[in-house]
Design brief:
The complex is a heterodimer of chains A (about 130) and B (about 130). By secondary structure, chain A is mostly beta strands. Chain A has a single domain (about 1-130), classed as Acid Proteases (Cathepsin D, subunit A, domain 1, Beta Barrel), CATH 2.40.70.10. Chain A is built from two helices and eleven strands, in the order ββββαβββββαββ. In chain A, about 40% of the residues are buried. With about 130 residues, chain B is of the alpha+beta class. Chain B folds into two domains: about 10-45, no CATH class; about 55-115, no CATH class. In chain B, a hairpin with a 2-residue loop joins strand 1 (about 80-85) and strand 2. The model of chain B has no long low-confidence stretch (mean pLDDT about 90). The chains are: A mainly beta (about 130), B alpha+beta (about 130). The interface of A and B includes residues 24, 46, 56, 59 and 63 of A.
Chain lengths: ~130, ~130
């Protein structure tokens, strides 16, 4: 399974197309930028988190995001399934109203074997670990 | 000319400061203003009535969950409880059933928790990706 890098970034950035299962059990397509510096599962803007009904699937535990400058922020966190091609993972989806990014972090990335083919600007998922 | 927008009543001092900071950062004024407008929208969303209502519901649900864990935690250990907007909705045998029940709720906010488990705190490194 291969995904072309996003050219919205300079240099281009690896991304993954994923389907996220909403509270109503529907599939919503998302483009997630691959970010190994983010240790969570998936990060989405709060407006999308609310739209997908993820406020109804929240977890008991508390998640604090630590910004690169060391400041902690409270994240809103739900647990849901994410589908990438034929692969299905249960991952934590985080959000915060002041964060407007869509990222795939290490909790999700570490479940897959991924090849970042920079010269071809292509991300390839080789097989499930 | 399709991308030209004329705006009246802009504070000239602020405009000059934005223009000089944008120049220092190597931004076009259009890019700087677009980023400023995006931030303004985000801040407004964070302070919206809907969001504050959601936060209050989450708080109520957390309080209720504490009560429920104290009352039923041992008795129904390992089962899943759904608490929506501060109300106990159902105790389910498995997580998938709990997801289905919570997903059908008309509530603003729900917590799905495993009975008998304490609330843990987790640290998530946000990384530099959120700034780019």
């Amino acid at each position: 399974m291969k995904f072309k890098y996003s050219k919205d970034y300079k240099p281009s950035a690896p991304r993954i197309k994923a389907l996220i299962i909403t509270a109503k059990q529907e599939k919503h397509e998302l483009e997630l930028i691959v970010d190994t510096g983010f240790s969570g599962g998936v990060l989405i803007p709060y407006s999308l988190y609310e739209k997908l009904g993820l406020t109804l699937l929240e977890v008991q535990d508390k998640y604090y995001g630590v910004l690169p400058i060391g400041i902690p922020i409270t994240l809103h966190t739900a647990l849901t399934r994410v589908i990438i091609g034929d692969l299905v993972f249960k991952v934590h989806v985080h959000s915060h109203p002041l964060i407007n990014k869509k990222l795939a972090g290490r909790e999700l990335l570490n479940k897959m074997k991924i090849l970042l083919n920079g010269p071809l600007e292509e991300l390839e998922i080789i097989e499930e670990r | 000319m399709g991308n030209v927008i004329v705006v009246k009543n802009v504070d000239k001092d602020i405009y000059r400061r934005v223009k000089s900071v944008a120049a220092l950062k190597g931004y076009t004024l259009g890019r700087a203003l677009t980023e400023a407008m995006k931030l303004w929208l985000l801040i407004n969303e964070a302070a919206s009535r809907d969001y504050l209502e959601y936060l209050s519901c989450r708080e109520k649900s957390e309080r209720k969950l504490k009560e429920v864990q104290e009352k039923y935690g041992e008795k129904f250990k390992g089962k899943y409880v759904i608490i929506c907007d501060g109300e106990l909705i159902k105790i389910c045998d498995n997580e998938d059933e709990a997801f289905m029940v919570a997903g059908k709720s008309n509530a603003k906010q729900c917590i799905i928790a495993r009975l008998g488990e304490v609330t843990k705190e987790h640290k998530v490194e946000m990384g530099m990706g959120i700034l780019s």
